[in-house]
Write a structure and sequence with these properties.
It contains 4 helices and 42 strands. It is mainly beta and 720 residues long. The termini are close together.
Length: 720
């Protein structure tokens, strides 16, 4: 009976598809002696869903061995990362990116593309996608939250990993982690060096149409960006159990990114008859240096009763970015003397935050969470422009291209959630978050001050109903906000090149979104399938707007649209074809509608499109796996135009040399198809922009995991 009972417990605890290896007792040893060990091993499910999120394991993604976090995110359902590193969720770039549930200055919208391409994926455990977050999270991000969960080594004793990779175009990466766990003390650390080689080609063809005569003047611009960037990252974490009820922990991360960037630009202007009127080059070479630091400390007290606790979190995050570029302007038509100038933009962002949270279990299995959060953000943006004397090389300040903008924002948040299970099948999670925001933006150069303050409530509700052991229904609602990025509020016009200018909009209002979605999840015959219909209505949608301020110079700014609605359905399926082939298919079929009448665009613009991903894993031998990833993005709508479709294909191969040691080879963007074609089409402007990123790269990586001692075996008593 004990044998049958123990076998039943193992069968219940091990997920479907797991492998159980048992060493039977030797025939020479009576069954009444000490039983042999049974070692239970299982592959973690590729995706798991709970009432408010979906978590995707990344250990099978071969890009995690040699690539960046951006490479891993690119293969996560509903998430898109373009070749420049810009991340979006269901096509919405207004996403909150967290690391272990906490924000970071380097994940702010203006800097996270570079950070995601620099941070190594080898330290990532899983990716959580939260499209409708509960009130426990900040209300920022109309698209939702992407939470990057790092690996937490809890093996007793000492353990660690070492990775090394080399790639085409002198790419390389080196990394090592170490952990020590014993009794009350946890220590962990990591060191990483990673070199990336950005290579970007942009072509821009535009026609400016005169509103009175209807005549058009044209321009053509081609820009090539090339360079290299090296990131040096160090992380250290410590945890200590002061007593059985009190725990202290702290983490510190230092990320230093530096490199060079060369830009070769060719510009041509045409008169209304199509004749070439101007032909010149604007080339530059420059440097960039970015230092980001994150520090956090947590105290947690556990009261009597499971799940009853009080925690206090302190966090500091900062990022300082410095760039310097010297430009050379070479004029062929008309023939003019060569000139030179330089730009030195600098930014400094700091975030400080304190969170106090009280978790209390209640009667009937209910759970109450109450919390307070205060966040302070300080940003400074300095732009320095200089004119360079062609004869002497003397540098003289250019007051028309020199400005300083500072921004400060305080957010006080009070939140509460209540979760309860009804009749063992229905789980409800309801909550509300109230945030009081005050901000001051000061354009120091022009002595302009803009103040903003508002109080908003953000209710959320999540329902989870178990139809059966294999079928689940979910329904959720949330109200979200997107606050303007500080850099988009600076009203000082900045000269990018002779054809382009950027200016911030201090009148930009927060973007607000109401989101409703449901999920039907079922698992027929070993296949995991999810369908998630959703509807989102957004007011004051942020949008990039372009207009001519001279016959040849285009100004870009941010503005609020009237309304935007998006309705669609996410779909995903994971399973196996035989014993050796695993597959995953996901995507979104959606209908997007934009009302941009407030921008002077008549009528409602709409589109129906689809994005899709597919991956295949072929376990050729017990030690060899081949992986194929395909991503397709359909046509997408812009307020003044649209983005055209594109496809990307990645390949990978892994060979296990011995337990804990493996080699991985990857080829990203096999067909060199990573591009971003955009079209702007208004009564006075037609523009076609194509950005081509040379991200095709071959990489070989070696990964070694060591230490931690043997896995603890499950013991089964064979006695009757």
């Amino acid at each position: 009976m004990r044998l049958l009972f123990s076998a039943a417990v193992v069968a219940f605890a091990v997920p479907a598809g797991a492998q159980i290896t048992a060493t039977a007792p030797s025939s020479a040893v009576p069954q009444t002696t000490t039983p042999a060990d049974i070692v239970v091993s299982a592959d973690r499910d590729a995706a798991t869903s709970t009432i408010d999120r979906k978590a995707y394991a990344v250990q099978r993604d071969l890009g995690a061995a040699a690539g960046s976090i951006a490479d891993v995110l690119r293969n996560v359902p509903s998430v898109d990362v373009d070749a420049a590193g810009n991340v979006s969720l269901r096509g919405d770039t207004n996403v909150q990116v967290l690391i272990d549930g906490k924000p970071s200055a380097q994940m702010s919208p203006s800097t996270r593309a570079d950070a995601l391409q620099s941070l190594p994926a080898s330290g990532i455990e899983s990716i959580e996608v939260i499209t409708n977050p509960s009130a426990r999270y900040k209300a920022d991000g109309s698209g939702g939250i992407i939470n990057i969960i790092t690996k937490k080594n809890r093996k007793p004793g000492k353990s660690g990993t070492a990775t090394a990779n080399i790639g085409s175009d002198a790419r390389f990466g080196l990394g090592a982690t170490s952990a020590y766990h014993r009794d009350k003390l946890d220590l962990n650390g990591a060191l990483t060096v990673k070199r990336t080689v950005p290579d970007y080609l942009l072509t821009d063809q535009r026609t400016d149409i005169d509103a009175v005569t209807g005549a058009g003047t044209g321009s053509s611009q081609e820009r090539r960006y090339r360079g290299h960037r090296t990131a040096k990252i160090a992380t250290i974490g410590v945890g200590y159990a002061v007593s059985p009820a009190d725990q202290l922990s702290g983490n510190f991360t230092y990320n230093d990114r530096a490199g060079t960037l060369r830009r070769d630009e060719h510009d041509r202007l045409f008169d209304p008859g199509g004749a070439l009127a101007s032909d010149f080059d604007r080339d530059s070479i420059g440097t960039e240096h970015d230092v980001a630091t994150d520090a956090s400390a947590t105290y947690k007290h556990s009261f009597a009763g499971k799940g009853h606790s009080l925690s206090i979190d302190l966090r500091y995050s900062g990022e300082a970015e410095n760039q310097s570029s010297r430009f050379t302007n070479i004029y062929r038509l008309p023939l003019l003397p060569t000139t030179s100038d330089q730009r030195r933009p600098r930014s400094n962002q700091r975030e400080r935050e304190v969170t106090v949270e009280y978790d209390r279990p209640m009667a009937a299995g209910a759970k109450l969470v109450l919390g307070y959060d205060f966040e302070r953000e300080d940003d400074a943006f300095d732009t320095h422009g200089d004119l360079v004397d062609a004869a002497t090389g003397a540098v003289m300040p250019d007051p028309t291209q020199t400005s300083r903008f500072v921004y400060a924002r305080d957010i006080h948040s009070f939140y509460g959630t209540y979760e309860r299970v009804f009749a063992e099948k229905l789980t409800a999670l309801v909550g509300v978050r109230v945030e009081a925001t005050s901000a001051v933006g000061t354009q120091v150069t022009n002595a302009e001050v803009d103040r903003t303050s508002y109080v908003t409530a953000y209710p959320t509700i999540h329902l989870d109903y178990a139809l059966s052991d294999t079928k689940t229904l979910r329904l959720s609602y949330s109200h979200r906000i997107v606050r303007p990025d500080p850099g988009e509020l600076d009203p000082y016009p900045l000269f990018n090149n002779p054809l382009d200018q950027h200016v911030g909009n201090p009148a930009l209002k927060p973007q607000e979104t109401d989101a409703v979605e449901g999920t039907f999840a079922f698992a027929p015959h070993g296949v995991s399938i999810e369908l998630t219909p959703y509807y989102r209505r957004t007011t004051n949608l942020f949008s990039q707007v372009v207009r001519f301020i001279t016959p040849t110079q285009l100004q870009t700014t941010q503005a609020n649209l009237g309304t935007s609605t998006k309705a669609g359905v996410d779909f995903s399926a994971n399973g196996k074809l035989g014993k050796l082939l695993s597959y995953g298919v996901s995507g979104t079929l959606f209908h997007d509608t934009i009302d941009a009448a407030n921008l002077g665009i008549a009528g409602t613009r709409q589109i129906t499109s689809i994005t899709a991903k597919a991956n295949l894993d072929y376990q050729a031998t017990p030690k060899d796996m081949i992986q194929l990833n395909v991503t397709f993005k359909g046509k997408r709508l812009l307020p003044q135009g649209y983005r055209l479709p594109n496809t990307r294909v990645d390949l990978g191969f892994r060979h296990q040399l011995k337990p804990g040691l493996s080699v991985v080879a990857t080829l990203s963007d096999v067909f060199d198809s990573a591009k971003d074609p955009q079209v702007y089409d208004t009564p006075l402007l037609h523009e076609a922009i194509t950005g081509r990123y040379s991200v095709r790269a071959a990489t070989i990586a070696l990964s070694w995991a060591f230490g931690g001692g043997p896995k603890k075996a499950a013991k089964i008593d064979y006695q009757d």
